[in-house]
Amino acid sequence: MISRLLVAALLPSLSLAAQRSDSLPLKTTRSVDFTTSEGTWISLDVSPDGQTVVLELLGDLYTMPVTGGEAKRITAGLAFDSQPRYSPDGKTIVFLSDRSGSENVWLCDSDGSHPRALTKGEKNLYASPEWTPDGQYVVASKTSMPIGSVYEIWLYHKDGGSGVSLTKDDKGPAPGPPGRSTQNNALGAAFGPDGRYLWYARHRGGFGYNLDLPEWELAIYDRQTGKVFNQTDLYGSAMRPVLSPDGKWLVYATRHDAETGLRLRNLSSGDERWLVYPVQRDDQESRFTRDLMPGSSFTPDSKALVVSYGGKIWRVEVPSGQASPIPFTAKVHQDLGPLVRFEARVDTGDVLVKQIRDASPSPDGNRLAFTALDKLYVMDLPAGPPRRLTTDSVHEQVPAWSPDGQWIAYVTWTDQGGSIQKIRPDGRGKAQRLTPEPAFYDHPVWSPDGQRIVTIKGPRAPRVAEHFGPGYELDWLPAAGGAPTRITPISGGGRPHFSRDLGALRRHRPARAYQSDGLHPQLRAQSRALSRGRGPDRAGFEPGARDVEQLRVPGRAAPGGRRAAGHQRGGHGGRIVPRSPAHPRGRRFYRLDGGREDRVLVGGAQLLPVQPRAG
To answer: Nearest 5°: CA angle at 492, between 487 and 495?
Structure first.
């Protein structure tokens, strides 16, 4: 099956002229045989005499009695044949096939003999062929290759010709996201007894990710006037219309409460009810290359719908909805091309890691903690061998050294959430979990006295679902472990860090934690006092600082031991210097205003002296 799909995906791009034949160029070398009583996405049709069902299974066409039994294969080979429909006289079957090297509309006799191409394009994809009630024409949805997703319904004479588009001018209002193409998608053409009116499903624009419902609606195309009239307005969309031969019933698929079912409409009264719910998943969120639902068919007496779902084929009574299985077995024979097999050397030695993350030097500068392949390592500088610190199977990220270098805190992550843990840098002893409840944690940082850890915390559910949203905060927790305490809500992102109070303030003010906004080099202060800090009496950046993170600015002691204005203004009151010159690395300059200690901060680079402002 995999080889078969690969052929179907690749071979349509081959030139028909280069092949000079109507057969696939791949030569078969293997085969697979088995018997099955189930199938996936089976499109089918009931013959006009009501005796036979034609169906697709694994790229071949089969026929079987309408009451069930053994399905007989009528087409074979490497080609992918699908979506068969009987002509009104029951003598011909229209279907899709890529046997010419590109997908086209084909015809064959009811027993599968005399296959012949109705269309002969090289760069098109088709879906949902259907006959007009007079049996003179075939309609089918067509789009361009390689992965076009805006289909138009085309009309072809049964004897051939270039065809004509029926829906190219359908640009009226239809479900779909705003701002998309004005062209409407058209799939699943269907007729009742009156060939003037063509039913189909329409959608504004082509394929798209994460589209909101409704996406599709049913419409009628009037072949005499060319006008289009919408027929449904449902939140769950409306797809794959099927009309009864007597013109009384319409069946279509729609989604309700995350599942897809079949609705039955009385065309005389307009009343609707569920015929079968649920059935199977529709294909609204994908590229609907085989329509939005498999094809189904009314029996000629309009008393039942023959349809496939759940791997089986069913007869569903109309209007009661009573469903009974139509058992079948099929002897499957699949011809396969050569097995693509080659030897590939598998590295069994050490792995050369090409990216390490969150490198963090130890306080004494002799060791480096980092993560590689989502695991935590420590190495001696400058070139010692990396040593993994744990044997856990969880993701380990963003290591942070304690001020005394005796511990490394880091965050973990699994599909159940994350935690903050700490471990000895020599790897002795097991890691200690510090947070009692799972959440999303990021960028832990120790307070200067080593008694607390500050971290970003957020809800785990959006991260597990690979979404991002609000709910982040800056928290602290005891370094020995315990429940986190919220410092302040934040908008998410950034990297928390501590400043150190210097000079005369060393004894009078505790350190502050700062949070970078992640977008601008300026600091955004979170002015919650955490611990008393100590540090060198000089300007500069903390070890490992990035951009303006962890900036230290020494202040001048004012008379009486009070701090002169302007200390730590990078986070609180720094302002952009108007029309400041560009830094060689493209950074902007920021002024730290106040007293004789004025500086211009260059993000991630240095402090440059400037003249204090007058006054």
So the answer is: 75
Rounded to whole angstroms, the Cα distance separating 404 from 363 reads: 7
Do the Cβ atoms of 75 and 83 come closer than 8 Å?
no
379 in any annotated domain? yes
Quick one: pLDDT at residue 44? 98
Would you say how long the chain is, in residues? 615
For residues 440, 443, 447, 450, the Cα torsion angle rounded to the nearest 10 degrees is 80
**Residue 422 sits in the same domain as residue 297:** no
For residue range 330-370, list pLDDT tens digits in order.
999 999 888 888 888 887 888 788 889 999 999 999 999 99
Diameter of the chain by CA atoms? 108
Please state the pTM of the whole predicted model: 0.60
Question: Which tokens is 33 given?
Answer: 């045989």
Domain that holds residue 510: 357-565
Helices (H) then strands (E): counts for the chain: 4, 47
Say if residue 376 is in the same domain as residue 232. Answer: no
130's CB contacts (< 8 A; 6+ apart) are 85, 94, 138, 139, 140, 189, 190, 191
User: Cis omega (within 30 of 0) on the bond before 584?
Assistant: no
Q: What is the mean pLDDT of the chain?
A: 80
- Determine contact, residues 250/262, Cβ cutoff 8 Å: no
Q: Is residue 601 included in any domain, yes or no? A: no
Find out whether 116 and 99 touch, Cβ atoms under 8 Å.
no
Strands 239-243 and 523-531: unpaired
- What residues contact residue 303 under an 8 Å CB cut-off, 6+ apart? 317, 318
Give the integer Cα–Cα distance in Å for 122 and 15.
7
The helix, strand and coil proportions of the chain, stated in percent and rounded to the nearest 5, come to 5, 40, 55
In a domain, 436, yes or no: yes
Tokens of 389: 């610190």
Residues 6+ apart with CB under 8 A from 134: 88, 195
Q: Is residue 169 part of a domain?
A: yes
Q: How far apart are CA 17 and CA 28, in angstroms?
A: 22
Residue 233 CA from chain centroid, whole number: 27
